[in-house]
Amino acid sequence: MSVTKKVRTVRKRTAAPTDSDPDTDELVLSSDPLHPANLIPELCKLFYSLGWVTGTGGGISIRNGKDKSLQALTCFLIIRSYEFGRNRDNVYIAPSGVQKERISPRDLFVLTLSTRCNLRSPPSLKPSACTPLFFNAYTMRQAGACVHTHSQNAVMVTLLYGDQFKITHQEMIKGIKKGSTNENMMFDEMLVVPIVENTLFEEELTSRMAKAIEDYPETNAVLVRRHGVYVWGKTWEKAKAMTECYDYLFEIAVKMKSIGLDPAAKPTISPSPTIPTHNLERMQTIARLDDRDIKISEAVYELYARSVEFMIDEL
Ligand SMILES: CSCCC(=O)C(=O)COP(=O)(O)O
Ligand SMILES: [Zn+2]
Question: Environment class of residue 3 by beta-carbon count within 10 Å: exposed (0-12), middle (13-18) or buried (19+)?
Fold first, then answer.
């Protein structure tokens, strides 16, 4: 037996996990590609390529195991919190301020959900500043994973809307679950996402996010003005897929607004109207922006005002 192995064995028997205990490697080293410690680095790389976690910000946290409802179905009453040797109470968190596309499993923190104890704390690293926000999703919504992006689409909608983002009649709305029933939304329902104001430090967002979660029982996301978005789901797959749907909807809403279309308006004609060039009345309706929009869409308004003038001349 090598010296290293001997030392490890002794440590294992006698030492409780400490901040730099190599025995806690067991919590993050797994050949299972679906282990949270392998998924977080993989997903962070993907999110980096999408521009969601660049400049070290943003990331994803994953909780061990499967959705509770699925566990109940399988009736593993006593061992239900242990799946493939993994404890459902464990939450995996990336380090703070590191290049998120270059994380390795050994860099990860592991905390207990129930007591928020550090089971693993890699030396010289700090847990993500988003940790208490991820815990909001775990404790208030029984989430299995929570994503935080700094996507420009998310930031843009917070510049274009007040305290709520709203959109309807979009196919991708069907990819979003209702918080209360966990059912998927319908194409023609109104998706509403609360927007909270940013704070100087990420941790200080915790109570604002918690209030938004309480006030909006249907939401699975909270936007943070001039910052990004938090999205959670019962599993990492659902959190990822919903983040993709939300981001798509944010992007299309920004594009719609930029040409004067209201993403929250029920379409009156089918197919969706292109920018009208010969119907003065319809043009004027689109150009009639509400107070909030005027503040943030002066350029768009100007464009339409000019188009309307041009059309009046043409008539
Ligand atoms: C340029 S990142 C600013 C801080 C931030 O918004 C953030 O999400 C930080 O996350 P981290 O996991 O690096 O603490
Ligand atoms: Zn952030």
Answer: exposed
